[in-house]
Amino acid sequence: MDMQTSFLDRLFEKGLLIDTGVDGLYGRSGQFEDVITAFERLIDRTGGIDGAEAIRFPPGINRAHFEKSGYMKSFPQLAGTVHSFCGCELDHINLLKCMDEGDDWTKEQKATDIVLTPAACYPLYPTIAKRGNLPKDGGLYDIQSYCFRHEPSKDPARQQLFRMREYVRMGTEKDVTDFRQTWMDRGVKMMETVGLDVEIDVANDPFFGRAGKMLANNQRDQNLKFELLIPVTSAANKTACMSFNYHQDAFGTKWGLNLDNGQVAHTACVGFGLERIALALFAKHGLDVQEWPATVRETLWG
Ligand code: ATP
Ligand code: ZN
Q: CA 54 to CA 246: how far, in whole Å?
């Protein structure tokens, strides 16, 4: 059995994660959630002084906004759409018959106006653009959402529904690149205070297909994405537990996000993968929170 499957099995046995029969779709125990809540408090303590505006969206995005985002161009393999039954009574009879016979009953489901959120910050850009020009110092937002990505896996750190906590900065090029650097430094320090070994490296998004290779190379060459890596199931293949993304003026242009002087805004976001961070803590300090080092417990619950 590989390391990923055995860690997943140990998490199930201990009841920290709850098997649903679908890879990457898990229940979480109170203890698991308590670790995430404690880590989010650490995020609040670290970022709180910046005075970000907190906004929470449910884990669904307006389909029109999703279409405009261009997500299907880059990551069609990861997207999840919400479909519903929209038929008449006769259609309903056919649907039940289809289910009874074990046929594919989903074919007649129709797309709704909702798509599952692929990254926590996606619903933010159109929301802020609708307000008009940004304030004088730009904008800073605190976001958290469940996100969906269709990437079933036995690796407990690769889930299909997981939470991302993000800070998003909109402003001048300097505003947003300074913001990103600040969070890279803070991220490293935060992980050290909870006893995790970290490394920061340049990264790329999993763009689809052959054309995607070029986009990925371009993203790397321009240092647009960094990840904070922590060993979870393997010391050799570390897991990205935070990411730091600079979008240049791409989102500003796409969504019509402008500075107070009317110039196009630059944007950057930093994301914490909350389940991955909890899993990194369990992998490093053991599955029994009572046994974690006192300094780590103090930082999280002190
Ligand atoms: P990876 O390269 O591991 O697939 P990614 O580049 O797709 O990650 P981002 O799109 O930057 O990740 O997402 C922001 C953060 O969300 C990541 O740094 C990670 O911590 C977390 N994350 C991403 N995908 C998953 C997943 N499938 N399960 C759990 N957490 C995830
Ligand atoms: Zn983001």
A: 20
CATH number of the domain enclosing 144: 3.30.930.10
Q: Which domain holds residue 153?
A: 3-80+118-301
Burial 17-42 (b: 16+ CB within 10 A, else e): beeeeebbebebeebbeebbebbbeb
Distances from the Cα of 250 to the Cα of 133, 180, 209, 221, 264, angstroms: 16, 16, 21, 17, 9
Per-residue pLDDT tens over the stretch 21-53: 999 999 999 999 999 999 999 999 999 999 999
CB of 23 closer than 6 angstroms to any ligand 1 atom: no
Phi and psi based region of residue 121 (left: phi greater than 0; alpha: psi -120 to 50; beta: remaining): alpha
**Ligand 1 atom with the shortest distance to the CA of 204:** 6
**Whether pTM exceeds 0.85:** yes
Among 93, 115, 137, identify where a domain stops.
115
**Which ligand has the shortest distance to the CA of 143?**
2
pLDDT tens column, 175-215: 999 999 999 999 999 999 999 999 999 999 999 999 999 99
Residue 55 φ/ψ, nearest 5 degrees? -140, 135
Measuring from atom 21 of ligand 1, which residue has the nearest CA?
A: 273
For ligand 1, atom 25, the nearest C-alpha belongs to 158
- Evaluate if residue 1 carries a pLDDT over 70: no
